[in-house]
Specification:
The complex is a heterodimer.
Chain A: E1 3-5, E2 10-14, E3 19-21, E4 24-26, E5 32-39, E6 46-52, E7 60-61, E8 64-69, E9 74-79, E10 88-96, E11 105-107, E12 111-116
Parallel strand pairs in A: 2-12
Antiparallel strand pairs in A: 1-4, 3-9, 5-6, 5-10, 7-8, 8-9, 10-11, 10-12
Chain B: E1 4-7, E2 10-13, E3 19-25, E4 31-37, E5 43-51, E6 54-57, E7 64-66, E8 76-78, E9 87-94, E10 104-105, E11 109-113
Classes of the chains: A mainly beta, B mainly beta.
Chain lengths: 117, 114
């Protein structure tokens, strides 16, 4: 069974500082994808960054980077130079092709990030 | 602009009524998905479709039905059999159903049962 765990219900960060949102996962599939999404108060899920299980380098997208530690099964999101607009709920998700999952996304419970001015 | 649209944004239903949520995409994606989100929770998969005229149940399909007659459209019907339908519903699409493929989401429909 696949599982995503986000242990931080809420995080606070000062504007312009960096913040790390934790994500650990569990799967027996050798091939999988890890995703981070941002959900502002409007509700829409915004794709931020993707990491493949066979990727050798950590993914980066602008101010977002993914700290992928395969042996520890962790995929933490790092947001550099936080902005007020980064305040939102953040979800870690995983897809794998094994078993009956058929590529569905399995989501964690989310972390609410609040950026203070 | 390419994207995913969902309508309506807000929907109110009386108990015992069926309602249909619309999802349309112009991204030329083969795969489409419906998720349900309850307050303070992650998303759970209701139904998905990898190709036209084919769809499969997800983790919480009971009380829901879908159709996929066109590539662009994947409507979700919430039937009276769904015991607790009040939730936020999100539609997503992806090029394929492969594990490396990104899913993109629509703006969502908030359903409230009165």
């Amino acid at each position: 069974a696949q599982k995503i765990t986000q242990t931080q219900p809420g995080m606070f960060v000062q504007e312009k500082e960096a913040v790390t949102l934790d994500c650990t996962y569990d799967t027996s599939d050798p091939s999988y994808g890890l995703f981070w999404y941002k959900q502002p108060s409007s509700g829409e899920m915004i794709f931020l960054i993707y990491q493949g299980s066979y990727d050798q380098q950590n993914a980066t997208e602008g101010r977002y980077s993914l700290n992928f530690q395969k042996a520890r099964k962790s995929a933490n999101l790092v947001i550099s130079a936080s902005q007020l607009g980064d305040s939102a709920m953040y979800f870690c998700a995983m897809r794998s092709a094994g078993g009956t999952s058929y590529g569905k996304l399995t989501f964690g419970q989310g972390t609410i990030l609040t950026v203070h001015p | 602009d390419g994207g995913i649209t969902q309508s309506p944004k807000y929907l109110f239903r009386k108990e015992g009524q069926n309602v249909t949520l619309s999802c349309e995409q112009n991204l030329n994606h083969d795969a489409m998905y419906w998720y349900r989100q309850d307050p303070g929770q992650g998303l759970r998969l209701i139904y998905y479709s990898q190709i036209v005229n084919d769809f499969q149940k997800g983790d919480i399909a009971e009380g829901y039905s879908v159709s996929r007659e066109k590539k662009e459209s994947f409507p979700l019907t919430v039937t009276s059999a769904q015991k607790n339908p009040t939730a936020f519903y999100l539609c997503a699409s992806g090029r394929t159903s492969g594990n490396t493929d990104t899913q993109y989401f629509g703006p969502g429909t908030r359903l409230t049962v009165l």
